[in-house]
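Quick one, tokens below. Sequence please?
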């Protein structure tokens, strides 16, 4: 059987720096655990625009369709702000999501005990937090038609359409229920059924999927605005949250800040199973390209490393190895290693991007 394949797209800004630490972890698995991957690397975002005049070359898109999983660093930067919307770096990422049909975006929000003081909420509210937001990623108001800016009378009107089909809701609901079975067995579905017809349909379909195929999973429904309030009030009441594209965008970023730093948070975007049974998959850190610190060795690589851990768990069925990586990260943080974004005390010297990688590799060695 051939080795699992990974396409690495470092991207822009700090993307290449954090991805370099991920490749060191991949190499560690090859040398210390006998787990090897077929690795290819290509360009995306601004780097692809500089080389090809497009944020994602057709050849790269074809590679992404063929591999078992894609690992992406970050895209974008002020250098590309003046580009036409159609060729901005972010369009490369959106094309990957759309053409790979990655309909379920998994955004974990986990607060490591060593970082509980970094949250803007009280320590007892966030310590031990471990929730997963499942966001529908390929439909909803970001993709619905009609859309655009039109002339109406003597003024312009901006139009976006919230649109969901039953099948689109059904498949992301199933992803959430399946995920919950591997976690705390609870799902909270969030929408605005009180004011939006799409929300009424969303609630009806999620309930139907639950009743017919997942009655063992505890299901609750909540209006998305109330959900935002509850995330700030008592987030540990949640296990898995499933919601649409727009609300998922907002709620996942809000949940991210409960943990204290975007530099800590991975994500996965999953699609339907391929012929080999593995889902179409793209893994990336939540943080952006941070061009202000690019090339300075200040970036926190943990989110990108934890994205690899998600790939091990969800694409390659290597849950024990994923836990090994996550435990190594937790140990390093408990031992006091901090990149610049995690400094909370005066007089503490931050470790560099590669220094954090060194520490995690050391913890991985200790796990053997």
């Amino acid at each position: 059987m051939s080795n699992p394949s990974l396409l690495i797209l470092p991207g822009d800004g700090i993307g290449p720096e954090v991805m370099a630490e991920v490749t060191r972890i991949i190499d560690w698995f090859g040398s210390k655990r006998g787990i090897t991957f077929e690795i290819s690397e290509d360009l995306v975002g601004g780097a692809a625009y500089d080389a090809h005049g497009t944020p994602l070359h057709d050849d790269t898109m074809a590679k992404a369709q063929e591999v078992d999983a894609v690992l992406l660093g970050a895209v974008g930067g002020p250098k590309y702000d003046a580009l036409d919307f159609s060729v901005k770096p972010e369009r490369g990422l959106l094309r990957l999501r759309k053409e790979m049909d990655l309909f379920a975006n998994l955004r974990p929000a986990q607060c490591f005990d060593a970082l509980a003081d970094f949250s803007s909420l009280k320590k007892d509210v966030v310590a031990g937090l471990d929730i997963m937001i499942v966001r529908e990623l390929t439909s909803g108001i970001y993709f619905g038609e009609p859309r655009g800016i039109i002339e109406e009378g003597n003024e312009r009107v901006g139009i976006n359409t919230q649109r969901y089909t039953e099948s689109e809701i059904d498949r992301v609901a199933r992803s959430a229920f399946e995920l919950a079975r591997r976690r705390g067995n609870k799902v909270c579905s969030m929408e605005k059924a009180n004011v939006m017809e799409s929300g009424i349909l969303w609630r009806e379909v999620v309930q139907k999927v639950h009743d017919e195929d997942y009655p063992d999973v505890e299901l609750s429904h909540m209006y998305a605005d109330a959900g935002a309030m509850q995330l700030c009030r008592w987030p540990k009441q949640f296990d898995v949250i499933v919601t649409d594209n727009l609300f998922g965008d907002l709620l996942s970023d809000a949940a991210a800040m409960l943990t204290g730093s975007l530099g800590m948070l991975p994500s996965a975007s999953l699609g339907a199973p391929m012929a080999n049974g593995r889902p179409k998959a793209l893994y990336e850190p939540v943080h952006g390209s941070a061009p202000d610190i690019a090339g300075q060795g200040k970036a926190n690589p943990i989110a990108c490393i934890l994205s690899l851990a998600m790939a091990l768990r969800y694409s390659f069925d290597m849950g024990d190895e994923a836990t090994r990586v996550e435990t190594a990260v937790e140990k390093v943080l408990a031992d006091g290693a901090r990149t610049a974004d995690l400094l909370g005390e005066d007089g503490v010297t931050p470790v560099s991007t590669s220094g954090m990688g060194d520490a995690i590799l050391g913890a991985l060695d200790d796990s053997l």
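The mean pLDDT is 94. The CA atoms of residues 60 and 299 lie 26 Å apart.
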